Amino acid sequence: MVAMVKHLKQDVPGCVAAGVVDMATGMLLSFETTDSHPSEVLDLLAGATLDLFQGRTVTMIENIFKERRGIASAEHYFQEILVNSSNLTHLFIRNNHHEDVVAVVVCPKSVNIGMLFASARRVVKDHGGA
To answer: Which domain of life does the UniProt lineage start with (predicted)?
Structure first.
């Protein structure tokens, strides 16, 4: 996971922070940032990521979509989530082979969204078996 974080920081244009969250344990496995952040923020990142992808309401929405579309798979429906704050863009992407692993990439809000998605997807795919 350390290698994935390093590649996200290197390969995603303007990346100011990257991390990997284990959804099964709710832990931040690895992170790298250009700024110092309070440990409380880093501790909350894993929980916030878990809520975004597998919170009670999100899980209910996924189950309704699966039911209506006749999908019997246990696979999670939501794979990527983009969040814009006042100054930053945060991209959360599930690992393509280990859906309990989510990569988090943070860039300035001025980032080219297409380049952000393309670069982050490539890195996550390259580390899919990691």
So the answer is: Bacteria
